[in-house]
Specification:
about 30% helix; Immunoglobulin-like; single chain; alpha+beta; Endonuclease, Chain A; 7-stranded mixed beta sheet; PLD phosphodiesterase domain-containing protein
Length: about 600
Amino acid sequence: MLNPTSDRLDYGRLLSPPYGYELVAAIGTTYSLDFSALIGVCIALELAEEPDSQLLKNPICLLQALRRAGDKVAVFCQAGQIQAPSDASSLYILLETIVYQVLLEKRKNHPVFHSFHPKFWLARYGNAQGDERWRLVILSRNLTFDRSWDVAVALDGEPGKDITPKNQPIIDFLGYLRSKLPKSASGKRKGALLGSLMSALPRVVFSAQSIDKFQDFEFIPVGVPNSNGGIYTMNETKLFSHSFQNLLIMSPFLSKELIKEFNTKPMQSNALKRVLVTRKEALSEFQANDCDKFAIYTMKNDIVNGEASLSEEPMETRQQDIHAKLYLWHEHSNSELYLGSMNASNSGRNGNVECMICLKSRSRWLNLEMLTTALFGADPDGPQNPFELTPLPPAQKQDANKTAALEKMIKALCHATPQASVREEDGTYTITLSFKDLESGEGLTVSPLLTKQTLAVSEQCQFSGLALLQLSEFYRVTAANEEVRISRTIKIPTLGIPKERDMAVFTSIVKNTGCFYQYISFLLSDDYLSTAVENENLKHPGKNSHGNSLPPGLYEEILQTAARTPDKLKEIGNVLTMIKSKDVIPSGFAELYDSLKRAVKIND
């Protein structure tokens, strides 16, 4: 279940549609976001291919995946936590209708801004017969390429006949996300998408019994308003409100007060155990009486510095550590396993928005010994155990995080009500960017993501001489001091972007007849990886005997599509509408499309 060497989950497989099904809708949440990782997820959701496959290097494939995902996928992240890409692509423009930032306001009696921190996916799939499948995924992993060790659980669901009250917390969470959408056209479309999921969920049955050892589950969207007028919280769970016989906490970040609370809770037998698994640096400010009843484990240094010792496959050595958040509560014959995004910290428990799931079991199927054996191996002192028993280091004040102040500056900028507008001047464009509630721009610079023009942040910034494909709602913000600098991408509402910009993204990739052939082939395919290989022969149509005419294989594929799935022909019509250049569309293709359209009686 939780063996680090054998029970690894593939992010792409968690989200790929079941065989014979296609994606209907998917909603994801993450604290931090990497655009390349998101594009990989779109490939998994829409094309049912691995996120790290060769398709990531194929711009035609990426274009198809992102165009398909644009109307079906929404991903919510913490404002100011989108990683700034090293090499920005115009394809990122297509992510504007997928990515939505969440900004939490200060809560009463809390001096700081809390974070939108959940890691969650809900996907709905359908097939040609009208059948549905659903998948609920709760993770501790952000949508990035971080190699730290995380944990995830996936529950499959199907429509049932009766209303399932168990799904109300999921519905409430989706309602909360819907309230965070902008009032833009894309925001309204995604609001309707969320509404359709919320309407269907009452009769969807998710089962924890498909996961070995578990009988039931409870979804807990911490910090989200519930339908009864309260707020979802972990404080009412058995983990926090009941006594226990055995306890395991795995969390990379800790608050002394919370761990001390568990440390001082009376146990029903002194022979039973408390186990804490964390990072070494998380212990720096602890004193003995804060956690002296815990057996403390941290990851071995050779594992932190590289994963090669756990795998026979060669790999690049990258630093890693635990990032999983997991809690085992055991009392008498009952066991509950909590996992998700919440750290064992004050802000995680009270303040942040988090997603947790409680998996309920019996102690004969799940207990501390079983869980520690899965994590540490049969011999906790053996070389195969990636963790080691760690004595508490001498208490010391932790060094100030050099980037924490810079992160705070970027978060404050996100709260400064940024807005932008575009106007055309003699064939080029000017962006005027304003920060209505800016307190200070010192140490901050900003630039549109797709241009190198950079300005110091002020109440109003102006970027001139921009091309159509340099217009985007994504902006790069850099915060710097004398020691360090960090860059993030933020999304800013930008009015006046011409409608033809998205069309320009398409035509910048489908720019000749060979690319046109490739795109049509991808459009009609059900096996995208094989199509990518076959499409190598279509890149340079002038080098084969077909010249500007339709290759026989593609011609046959179009005829089969017209006979079997005529609705796919509509998308070909959309492509023809977007391409204005006569040099791209091969001679006679538009006429072929019109004749097939009449034959199968479809309207564009």
